[in-house]
Amino acid sequence: MPRPTKQSPERGDARTRLLEAARDVIRQKGFAATSVDDLCQSAGVTKGAFFHHFKTKDALGVAAANYWAETTSALFAGAPYHKPDDPLDRVLAYLDFRKGIIGGETFEYTCLVGTMTQEVHDSAPAIRDACAASIFGHAATLEADIEAARAQRGIDAEWTAESLARHTQAVLQGGFILAKATGDSDLARESVDHLIRYVRGLFGLDVEPQTSTTREN
Fold it and tell me: Which domains does the chain have, with CATH numbers?
């Protein structure tokens, strides 16, 4: 079998290339401004290949949101913030990790599903729902550690693990918007710093750790 090329990719390879192109180009240009031609050019495939895999651009948008969820889930599942024994340390290490991966070009660290949601929340409900599944699905991965930290520290408050997990994503997405508005990634990192202080305060820790965001022993 000949080695697949951009001009003649194997079936399935063209689909992955298009999804990866969507991941990058849509984060740079936005969903509406990204054309099928843009995606095909970036992926190195023909329009025929595009429409073989996706009936419409909206269908590509749904698939791109699902692909984003799958690939980022793998990234976060293997991240080092899961290593601490203490659940609160794991939550704080997650926030450290999120801050640490903010860097490079704006499109490289901002969120595909957040970008698409802002554009199509009213006009393309199928894409919106796929984006919501990605955002809320990721938030849900934090809930067990937050709940365990609440139980361990005897926190009895109206807020829930689910609501705090959602709040982390609201702050992250808001930080990305500020970074896009200014081209300044420091504003996104600043938002995470404030989130870290907030979480530490909820659990009765000093809001300004001496050396790291993990709790003192």
Answer: 57-202 (1.10.357.10)
